[in-house]
Amino acid sequence: GAGVSQSPSNKVTEKGKDVELRCDPISGHTALYWYRQSLGQGLEFLIYFQGNSAPDKSGLPSDRFSAERTGGSVSTLTIQRTQQEDSAVYLCASSPGSAKSGQFFGPGTRLTVL
Amino acid sequence: GDSVTQMEGPVTLSEEAFLTINCTYTATGYPSLFWYVQYPGEGLQLLLKATKADDKGSNKGFEATYRKETTSFHLEKGSVQVSDSAVYFCALIGGGSTLGRLYFGRGTQLTVWP
Q: How remote is the C-alpha of B47 from its chain's centroid?
């Protein structure tokens, strides 16, 4: 079946612009996660959605970052007023209600802020 | 807080050599433990997992045993191949839960020469 998909695969933007990154999780997976991967910081957790519960936003680095998940499926990560330090690969993952099978990752969106 | 420490790379081996990548963790409760692999130019893939003490996860010739007494989850393979060249990440979900965020180690780059 289809895996986690993310779009766009690459995004180049200018400092100060807003960007939106999209994630389509595996059908039927109730949990959705955003991480980012950068050379200096490794893999960082950003935010986590589980069903209809309030999201765990504890990893968002600043109030410029926000995310929503509509209809329990697709999620959008928005970064406002982008900065050069936001350049990274943004990864989305999903897992079923019982995540003993692990989290399944999409291919990522590579964001470059000029 | 929860954390993962894995051996620094890079690790360079000849084909058919034995591989060990060390991973130790700090966590409250009983974490679930994972190894993820990232092949060049690709996304993160779940390699193996263990959800309770003394469990052994295995996949593609790789093994790791959940050792509660030493808080370790070392990755091993008896005979590596060139195709195993990748970055390997040890990770945990803490507190006995299998939902919630993953805590990742910094990753270990493995290069296998023919």
A: 8
**pLDDT digits 0-9 by tens, B50-83:** 988 999 999 999 999 999 999 999 999 999 999 9
- Whether residues B99 and A33 touch (CB distance < 8 A) is answered with no
C-alpha span between B110 and B84 (Å, rounded): 8
Tens digit of each residue's pLDDT (9 = 90 or more) over A28-83? 898 999 999 998 778 999 999 988 888 999 999 999 999 999 887 999 999 999 99
Answer yes or no: do B32 and A98 touch at CB < 8 A: no
B111: nearest Cα among B45, B36, B40? B40
Q: What count of other Cβ atoms lies within 10 Å of the Cβ of residue A1?
A: 5
What's the token pair of residue B106? Answer: 């910094």
Cα four-point dihedral sign B37, B60, B95, A94 = positive
Identify whether B10 is preceded by a cis peptide bond (ω within 30 of 0): yes
A20 interfacial to chain B (CB closer than 8 Å): no
Asked if B101 and A33 come within 8 Å (Cβ–Cβ), the reply is yes
Buried residues in A36-58 as b, exposed as e (16+ CB within 10 A): bbeeeeebbbbbbbbeeeebbee
Question: Which chain B residues in 66-105 lie under 8 Å from chain A, judged by CB atoms?
Answer: 89, 93, 98-105
Distance separating alpha carbons of residues B103 and B81, to the nearest angstrom = 28
